[in-house]
Amino acid sequence: MRAEALKGHLDALLLATLEEGPRHGYAIKEALCEATGGRLDLPTGTIYPALHRLERAGLISGTWSVTAGRRRRTYQLTGSGVAALREARQNWSEFADVISSALRSTPWPITS
Amino acid sequence: MADHELIERELDVLAGRLPASIVDELADGLTETYQAQLARLGEPDAAAKATLAEFGDADTISAAFVRAAPGRAAALVLLAIGPLVGALWATALVTAQAWTWPVPIAARLTVGATLALLVTVLALTIRAKRHYKAVQIGAIGAACGFVMLDLTVLITAKVLATPSLLIACALAASLTRITITAQLLIRFR
């Protein structure tokens, strides 16, 4: 699956990867890959701007630490992020129900 | 830092375009990716090439940061509201016969040149595709410039103009733009 297909859903996917606890950028990418069975073809580097956008929106917060001599930024969900994830799940569920109903292969009734 | 020339080169390019804190974060991600690829492939050159393919090249990454930059959003807002504020002031100044005010020609030219410069800076800022630092500096410079320009015109009109509804509307527009610009600047932290 290409990055373009994720338009509008990437934020929710990133929030979902942080639901289990704080993660740094690469770990978030790995979690995303694992959760989707490796079907997401997303350049790792483009996850970072999305994380910064989510942080500016107050949905996640980042903290610095030092690991193996490198500076590492780790992110976790904020209260607003938890609420946004809940809402995104609800919206997706409703959207998926509507599209699934419309795409069901049941023949249309004859009206004439 | 990752121990491979290709990765170091990518980080050097990114360091020229992005703030140090972002480059530090990307360096950590690149190193993690490189180590995972090295464990998988066992050969440094192949691992470095696979890392860059997986991580994305410097142009792709910096372009993604520029698209999400607060500076770019601020520049778009300032360019969008500029014509409205400008039209209000133009109408108010023409109606008030501002050319009769005792303002030196040099001061008038300076205001005009500053306005043209700020619009050019904003246009260049939103056209920038990969240089995040340039976008941020351009937007901050233009935002501060518009605050100064608005304050100058606002004070001049308050002192020299005969009170009218149009002048009041233009003053209100400038005050609104100053408030919006201040809020945009706060987001740059």
How would you explain this protein's 3D organization?
The complex is a heterodimer of chains A (112) and B (189). Helix content of chain A is 48%, strand content 16%. Chain A is α+β, with helices and mostly antiparallel strands. Chain A has a single domain (3-102), classed as Winged helix-like DNA-binding domain superfamily/Winged helix DNA-binding domain (Arc Repressor Mutant, subunit A), CATH 1.10.10.10. In chain A, strand 2 and strand 3 form a beta hairpin. Chain B folds into two domains: 5-65, no CATH class; 69-186, no CATH class. In chain B, helix 5 runs antiparallel to helix 8. Chain B starts with a helix and ends with a helix. The model of chain B has no long low-confidence stretch (mean pLDDT 91). Chains A and B meet through helix 2, helix 3 and strand 3 of A and helix 2 and helix 4 of B.
Query: Biggest sheet of chain A, in brief?
Result: 3 strands, antiparallel
Could you state the order of secondary-structure elements of chain B as H and E?
Answer: HHHHHHHH
- Let me know the largest β-sheet of chain B: none
> CA-to-CA gap between the ends of chain B?
27 Å
The overall strand count of chain A is: 3
Rg calculated over all Cα atoms of chain B:
24 Å
Low-confidence residue ranges of chain A = none
- Protein chains sharing the most extensive interface: A-B, 19 and 23 residues
The CATH homologous superfamily name of chain A equals Winged helix-like DNA-binding domain superfamily/Winged helix DNA-binding domain
> Low-confidence segments of chain B, ≥5 residues, pLDDT <50?
none
CATH architecture label of chain A: Orthogonal Bundle
Sequence of strands across the biggest β-sheet of chain A: 1-3-2
Mean pLDDT of chain B: 91
Element layout with pairings:
The complex is a heterodimer of chains A (112) and B (189).
Chain A: H1 10-17, E1 23-24, H2 25-35, H3 47-56, E2 60-67, E3 70-77, H4 79-103
Antiparallel strand pairs in A: 1-3, 2-3
Chain B: H1 5-17, H2 20-41, H3 44-55, H4 58-67, H5 70-95, H6 105-127, H7 132-160, H8 165-186
